[in-house]
């Protein structure tokens, strides 16, 4: 009996040594008694940001058009693909960044300045999920997108309002998708991306009508991708107050014939002390978030020819 107890004691001691070693390597902070023990929730949140690389968003200079590349770790997402003439330039640019696959490609709506180069993107990259509004148009540009999707056997999908999906460690909420074929701007897919404690709002070409609808939701964001290239049909004072961004990004062409961005929009942004970045003045705008802090850099690229 005494021998059996001795064996049990030895086994327990061995177990504690092994368990203690594992615990030491899993929780190195415990080796220092002066290091506070974080709560499990904080450990998990910090681990998510550490596991995924920094979030980067490229607001590409494609003139009077839109194209936005979002990267988190190995995950890639594209929102819009510029005009028809931008497609091959975008393909070359993305390939130079080493991109082979997009987890998500989103055409915010069926206007040529947002999906013009989309057929080239579909033709040249693997795409896991393709989203567009279910709003039919008969333009050659839209038909080219459908043809490319069919050739690659990629499903045309429309996300549901209030659906949520993940890109790496970023969470993306679908705030709005319209269906009125006669008003394509207001069919725009509106997205809110959250990464750690930072957030971004992407408006496509959505106008004040849509702004009023989504104002009932949590649309607060650190960065606002301004709707409809800064047109006076978007970015009302009330909307900007609800979003309360620190930064605004306007994708717009130099000397465009539409008068974008409008003086009214610029004034509304300036009145709220929102820092403005414009592709016609700054070129391609790269935003980086570590989950807490946001930084910007601007570069001149050849994506706009």
TrEMBL record:
<dbReference type="Pfam" id="PF00753">
    <property type="entry name" value="Lactamase_B"/>
</dbReference>
<dbReference type="InterPro" id="IPR001279">
    <property type="entry name" value="Metallo-B-lactamas"/>
</dbReference>
<protein>
    <submittedName>
        <fullName>MBL fold metallo-hydrolase</fullName>
    </submittedName>
</protein>
<dbReference type="InterPro" id="IPR035681">
    <property type="entry name" value="ComA-like_MBL"/>
</dbReference>
<feature type="domain" description="Metallo-beta-lactamase">
    <location>
        <begin position="64"/>
        <end position="254"/>
    </location>
</feature>
<dbReference type="InterPro" id="IPR052159">
    <property type="entry name" value="Competence_DNA_uptake"/>
</dbReference>
<dbReference type="InterPro" id="IPR036866">
    <property type="entry name" value="RibonucZ/Hydroxyglut_hydro"/>
</dbReference>
């Amino acid at each position: 009996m005494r021998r059996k107890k001795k064996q049990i004691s030895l086994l327990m001691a061995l177990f504690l040594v092994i368990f203690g070693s594992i615990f030491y390597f899993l929780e190195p902070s415990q080796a220092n008694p002066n290091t506070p023990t974080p709560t499990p929730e904080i450990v998990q949140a910090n681990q998510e940001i550490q596991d995924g690389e920094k979030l980067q968003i490229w607001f590409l200079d494609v003139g009077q058009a839109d194209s936005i590349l979002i990267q988190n770790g190995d995950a890639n997402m594209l929102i819009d693909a510029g005009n028809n003439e931008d497609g091959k330039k975008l393909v070359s640019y993305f390939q130079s960044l080493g991109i082979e696959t997009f987890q998500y490609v989103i055409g915010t709506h069926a206007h040529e300045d947002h999906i013009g180069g989309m057929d080239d993107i579909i033709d040249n990259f693997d795409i896991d999920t393709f989203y567009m509004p279910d709003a039919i148009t008969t333009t050659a540009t839209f038909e080219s997108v459908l043809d490319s999707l069919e050739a690659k056997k990629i499903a045309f999908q429309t996300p549901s309002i209030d659906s949520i999906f993940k890109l790496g460690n970023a969470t993306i909420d679908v705030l709005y998708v319209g269906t009125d074929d006669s008003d394509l701007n207001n069919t725009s897919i509106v997205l809110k991306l959250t990464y750690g404690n930072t957030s971004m709002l992407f408006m496509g070409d959505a106008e004040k009508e849509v702004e009023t609808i989504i104002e009932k939701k949590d649309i607060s964001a650190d960065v606002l991708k301004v709707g409809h290239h800064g047109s006076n049909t978007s970015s009302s004072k009330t909307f900007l107050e609800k979003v309360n961004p620190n930064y605004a990004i306007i994708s717009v062409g130099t000397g465009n014939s539409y008068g974008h961005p409008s003086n009214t929009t610029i004034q509304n942004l300036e009145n709220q002390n929102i820092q403005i970045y414009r592709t016609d003045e700054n070129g391609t705008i790269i935003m980086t978030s570590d989950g807490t802090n946001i930084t910007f850099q601007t570069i001149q690229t050849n994506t706009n020819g």
